[in-house]
Sequence to fold (217 residues):
Amino acid sequence: MNQPAVDTAGGAPPPEALSPPPMPGGALPKDHTQAILEVTKRVAALLKQSGQPFALAGSVAAFAHGVPARFQHDTDFCMRREDADAAIKALEDGGIEMRGAAEDWLVKGRTGGEEIDLIFELARRPVGTELLERATVKSVDSVWMPVLSPTDLMDSLLAALSEHYCDFGDLLPMARMLREQIDWGRLDRVHRDTPLPDAFLYLLDRLNVIDRGKGTP
Fold:
């Protein structure tokens, strides 16, 4: 994970930004959107051929559910740790360069100049069978693949908030766009006793994005 927006793992700043960071002198960074989509489709095709369960995560998953696409960093896939070896072999056999990472909750890859993360933990919680079974099959730039459910995606982003990274700037538009697809009651129950996610849910309630009393938009 190179950079923020939606860190699904380890409590570090989220892996991809939904909007690009500012550049010196006001210059715009190169738009990696289509390149990242092409890599996402290639990786998903190879993972499907491998037969290992997985789900698209991060900003590309948000795009699959309806958030506008503008990617700058990498594409994220989550899977169970026990399936990693078979998945890595399938990607390497497909011509993708894979490598270890300093963190023990993911491995990294690279192809077409773009980064790939295979994630085994979402915000310090192991990826399990139930999470992957809740994934919904969506078309991502015309290729069908399992994608983290909107509720699980938002849950992972809320769980990743910390005193070192607490930026609601990308979460708020995502919450607005996906609000009818998310089980807010479940998220309220899970995060009510955690200060930063609780603060974000309070903000959504005050902005009338959700009705926290009912747990629904």
User: Anything to note?
Assistant: The helical segments are 33-50, 58-64, 84-93, 129-133, 150-160, 171-178, 184-191, 195-206. The first helix runs from residue 33 to 50. The CA atoms of residues 10 and 123 lie 5 Å apart. DSSP finds eight helices and nine strands in the chain.
